[in-house]
Amino acid sequence: MKAIIPAAGLGTRFLPATKCSPKELLPVLDKPVMQYVVEEALEPEGVNGAVIVNSHEKPQIEAYFEEDLAFEEMLRERGKGELADKVHEAGALPVSFVYQDDPKGLGHAVLCAQSEMDGDPFFVLLGDYFVPGRQMCVRMAEISRAHNNASVIAVAPVPADQVSRYGIIAGEQIGSYGDTQVGPEEEGAVWRVTGLVEKPAPEEAPSHLFIVGRYLLSPRIMELLATQGPGAGGEIQLTDAMERLLEEEEMYAIVVDPAEGCDTGTPAAWAATNARMALANPAFTDAFREELGDASL
Ligand code: G1P
Q1: What is the mean pLDDT of residues 126-142?
Q2: 215 lines ligand 1 (CB under 6 A)
Q3: Mean pLDDT of 115-138
């Protein structure tokens, strides 16, 4: 089973930084954002590869995940074995690439990876957000197994005035993840999804739960994407194909706390993510506080 990570976007929100280096390679501490997303994708048992949907404009992403034994050797000769190990880790990740040179939307990006899926269910992870060590995809896989391998998405509450930025679900709570019973919009609530709308006007939103960018999807979605016409913003929307999937198959959602993830979608969010990760990682915390000096967080 594979995970698809769309990464063909232009990164306009990070210009000029992304003029000649892809936003996926912006570092969070000492690793690029994309490496965190790949590592998260590989957390569930049974996921044996990540397929990055890239554009030919960004060959640096591919270069980053390539093995470079000569470079590692040079580092080791200079007594930098620990750094060589880190470089090796990135090159050893099971990552492959497909290309979307004509960005026609998220649904189209996912369809570009169809040939790599072997007709199996697959994850999709949107790369502007990563959830380090929290096993979000593992929870989704468990819910899927409990419901006959149905599709499962992660959702979270969003204020009413922001629904038009996201995909919003309709449905009903059917239970809770784990032993504690929680309310419908609380973390751990499990919903059966009955409808999906991409970027609805506030008065048309069927709930306040938005799709956060983690999907476990039935292979049937690829066939539906192949005939999916443009939707919101003139783009081929994954959400629209999922709405059609509901006519044939069940779908579930788990409510997550968006604060458990790290947003890197805008310069401010990326800067805050670096600070949070530095404060959470003992290898960086003291040095980070010292560098920060009197500036308070
Ligand atoms: C995409 C999806 C949307 C989802 C969002 C999460 O939208 O189409 O359903 O809620 O990601 O970030 P985009 O951000 O590409 O407009």
Answers
A1: 92
A2: no
A3: 94
